[in-house]
Amino acid sequence: MEFLHEETILCPYCNESIVILVDHEDREQEYIDDCSVCCRPIRIQVTTNDNDELVVTVCDENEA
User: Fold this and answer.
1) How confident is the model at residue 64 (pLDDT cuts 50, 70, 90)?
2) Which of 3, 33, 50, 58 is 20 to 30 A removed from 21 (C-alpha atoms)?
3) What is the pLDDT of residues 18-36, one digit of tens each?
4) Dist CA 53 CA 18 (whole Å)
5) Biggest alpha carbon–alpha carbon distance for the chain
């Protein structure tokens, strides 16, 4: 089964839309990936909400 899903996010640095792959099996994730446009590091957090839906949050690497 394929659990990777494309999500479109906005880079917190250059504000460009980029596509990332999110693993739907791993319900709680946090990792850093480089923006494919400006190459700066983006902190990506994947959590679930009360309805068991995935929520993707992005920020620059220095934000808490």
Assistant:
1) low
2) 50
3) 999 988 787 789 999 999 9
4) 21
5) 35
4-10/17-23 β-pairing? antiparallel
In the prediction, which pLDDT does 1 show?
Answer: 47
- The strand pairing partners of 8, in sequence order, are 19
The answer to whether the Cα torsion of 18, 8, 14, 58 is positive or negative is negative
pLDDT at 58: 96
- So where are the chain's domains? 4-60
> Could you give the CA distance from residue 42 to residue 51 in angstroms, rounded to a whole number?
26
